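user: Kindly work through both lines:
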Amino acid sequence: MAEEKFLVPRDVYLKSGIHIGTKFRTKAMEQFIYKTRPDGLSVLNLQKIDERIKIAASFLAQYPPEDILIVCRRENGWKAVELFGKLAGARVFAGRYPPGILTNPNLERYIEAKIMLVVDAWPDRNAVLDAVRIGIPVVALCDTNNMSNFIDLVVPCNNKGKKSLGLFFYILTKEFLKLKGKLNEGEELKEKVEDFTEE
């Protein structure tokens, strides 16, 4: 595959470890696995990661930013999702997802969303189930050990590492803003990948 087809150079992907999976692999994720290393770790296919990030960005860009909800229970992703929320204008829950926030209009913090992105479908399962209850699509970052139940769009990637989550949200922000016409083709974000990564 030609280098220029990737959203970021191949070595940037490789350095972040976005393709390094876990020792567990589910049936749902097999199609995205490139190989299993001698140490038992499964490695995700970079080309498929890149393709799915493009699809996720264009899927999200079909919605007004205020209708997008990003949920991240995993601490390694908090800084990345908060910066995405700030730059893209999307709503973000970094930390514990408040139960019933999408399903109970009597709650003071009740919100309406039209699409949800979760960083890991397992720790973020309550948010996924709420999205299913109200019938909105769910985009989920899935590692080799994730199931894909109730997920409308699986984005294969290492959804546990700070660097890989930082890179994912950096690329997503850039692509999303381009599609929304807030960033010109060839224009770079003022923020660097490092700004999306926890110290």
Q: What stands out?
A: The mean pLDDT is 95. The first strand starts at residue 33 and ends at 36. Helices lie at 10-16, 46-60, 78-88, 125-134, 162-179.
